[in-house]
Known about the structure:
Elements: E1 7-14, H1 18-29, E2 34-37, E3 51-52, H2 54-62, H3 66-72, E4 74-75, E5 79-83, E6 86-91, E7 109-110, H4 113-126, E8 131-132, E9 137-143, E10 146-151, E11 154-163, H5 170-175, E12 179-183, E13 189-196, E14 206-210, E15 216-220, E16 227-232, H6 242-252, E17 260-269, E18 272-276, E19 280-281, E20 284-286, E21 292-293, H7 301-321, H8 330-351, E22 377-378, E23 381-382, E24 391-393, E25 396-397, H9 398-402, E26 407-412, E27 420-421, E28 426-431, E29 440-444, E30 450-454, H10 461-464, E31 472-473
Helix pairs in contact: 1-4, 1-7, 7-8
Amino acid sequence: MELNNVKETEVLIAGAGPCGLALACDLARRGVRALLAEQAPGLFPGSRGKGIQPRTREVLDDLGVGDAVREHGGPAPVGMVWQDGRRRGERDMFRRAAPTAAEPYGEPWMVPQWRTQEILLARLRELGGDIVFSAALTGLDQDPEGVTAHLSTGPVRASYLVAADGGRSTVRRALGVPMTGETVDPAPMLVADVRVAEGALDRLNWHVLLSDHGFVTLCPLPGTADFQLAAQFEEGEPDASAEGVRALVAARTHLGADDITEVRWASGFRPRAALADRFRVGRVFLAGDAAHVHSPAGGQGLNTSVQDAYNLGWKLGQVLRHGAPAALLDSYEAERRPVAAGMLGLSTRIHRGEQERGAAAQQLGLGYREGPLSTGRAGALEAGDRAPDGPAGDGLRLFDVFRGPHFTLLSVGTDAGLPAFDDAMVRVHRIDAYEAYGKGLFLIRPDGYVGWAGDDASGLADCLAPLGLGATRS
């Protein structure tokens, strides 16, 4: 293969949405050379994926952007139903729970997608990375040693390629991977970011305006002067022009066309659910919308996508930087595809009114108990479960102890002997008995899930080598 004038990197990420940006951040903090290529000339400008679920907030906190997400967002407003220009009463659309020691985030957090992407890009640049814009992928070739991607900016040779390039993924199509799915709703929808004239509509509620022509929702976006507008069409195609959006508001609400002072972004779509038949082909991985496409109703698409990146990032880091066998990467599809399938079903049921946005939508109960990397149980937890937060001593939280690219061997309320690790990628920490864990030893993966659990350290050594972790000494 001719390699003259070919740019080389370890991981090429196609697509700079939330998934690609989160993966680039994770790889950068692991010292993995990654190139993030985006075919558009800039970041996506709309609010589309605005709801950040509690589990994703934990992920973003670990990636170092938790404070920025909190600063630029806010809780989801309570719904206000309108009909015939009159308020008919509030209806909360989300499960809300008080934060606990084990679950520090109790409700979804609203941040427009464009802002989330700006926050992740700023973090990536802090870590020494960046994006190449206007770099469209036009084809790829792979062999046992790597992938050659053909970009509009020139060829790139990488050890691995991750497709985070959306529901119409060029990479997925180049691989010939089918997507199996269904139309969630035959009625098309319109979503737009708009400005509303001062005094025309308050920003205290998520407004649901009903009429004989169909509904319109207007949700104030925290940290901005914008509202996200959404509407469903029983017939005809949505007109995403500024004039079309204004005409829609005038026809279906008590607001006038002139009350929409600016249409900042708008897009029409048909709600669909689809799952890629495979998440990996050789050295190429599918992640985010390239692997699964959701109805927006459940608020699962962006969240599932970021968590794809969080699962894959540490595994690529272990293989490329810490000598883990390449077979570790097989666990990505084995762990993430069942989760994505479950979230697709949830999103579809919520869209059709068959299920409320309850605890399942918050994704704190997701895990990998049946996954290939999960071994053992102790106390209250089984390997594959999410590792709860809680007090860690010296004013620290467990999430402070876990934060970073390392593994943590956590001893909870037991005098069982702990091995000493030669590998700096494993840190050891002891806490007193804690209800969320019970008693035992727990190996916490870099993505915050229990990889191994036991009453003592017997059996732990057998789990280390497949993860690329070094030997222990007694």
